[in-house]
């Protein structure tokens, strides 16, 4: 049985009526590793929160051996079958060897974290990013318009990446659209409370959305963290 990483998570409601972010993590007894999932509901509504919880739980429970894209598709099936009308974005990390396979839709992000540097490995599926890719002007509103989601994405639209550093950070846009890279890096230097500090700092700096983070410590980190099998 593979040794599970140390990890910690935090979430806080920003200036919204509902916290529509959700996280999930699951390692089957005697299994090959762990699946992490972070979902962010589209909109400030109970339907959005339900979609995020449903997606995060379904993705995290998908077998490790099937990979990250399969976990996103499992989340999609669960959301479509739920009978609720909400939607969400999602990022999933599946443990593979010493690293992680990543899959995502929308603007939830994954970063590689080796204890010294942090590097974004996902690319936002937003209208703003689409326009940047085509060398067109971008307006602030475009940053918040996603071009893929759990409910709508086709298989070919799911983004994929690989993290080989052994450490990992997953964030909702309430974190990464408020905090700069250097600020995130400074906070990750406090790994025993990094997830909580990412969220607290994003809210305190005036973030306009809910803020959620999962931090998976690099294997070399000398830390004491709470190891949970499932969080939602």
TrEMBL record:
One GO MF term attached to the UniProt entry: kinase activity
Record's keyword annotation contains Acyltransferase: no
Protein name, per record: Putative serine/threonine-protein kinase
Keywords, comma-separated and alphabetical: Kinase, Transferase
Record domain PPM-type phosphatase: where: 6-218
PROSITE patterns, A to Z: PPM_2
Gene3D superfamilies on file: PPM-type phosphatase domain
Record field: transmembrane: none
């Amino acid at each position: 049985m593979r040794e599970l990483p140390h990890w910690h998570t935090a979430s806080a409601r920003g200036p919204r009526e509902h916290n529509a972010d959700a996280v999930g993590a699951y390692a089957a007894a005697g299994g090959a590793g762990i699946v992490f999932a972070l979902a962010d509901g589209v909109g400030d509504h109970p339907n959005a929160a339900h979609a995020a919880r449903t997606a995060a739980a379904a993705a995290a429970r998908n077998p490790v051996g099937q990979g990250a894209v399969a976990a996103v598709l499992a989340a999609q099936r669960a959301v479509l079958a739920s009978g609720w009308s909400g939607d969400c974005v999602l990022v999933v990390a599946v443990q593979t060897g010493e690293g992680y396979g990543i899959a995502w839709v929308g603007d939830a992000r994954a970063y590689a974290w080796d204890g010294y540097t942090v590097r974004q490995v996902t690319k936002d599926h937003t209208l703003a990013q689409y326009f940047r890719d085509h060398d067109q002007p971008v307006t602030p509103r475009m940053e918040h318009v996603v071009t893929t989601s759990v409910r709508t994405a086709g298989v070919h639209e799911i983004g994929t990446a690989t993290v080989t550093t052994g450490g990992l950070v997953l964030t909702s846009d309430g974190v990464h659209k408020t905090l700069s890279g250097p600020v995130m890096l400074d906070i990750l230097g406090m790994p025993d409370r990094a997830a909580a500090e990412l969220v607290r700092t994003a809210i305190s700096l005036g973030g306009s959305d809910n803020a959620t983070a999962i931090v998976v410590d690099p294997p070399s980190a000398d830390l004491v963290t709470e190891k949970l099998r499932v969080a939602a």
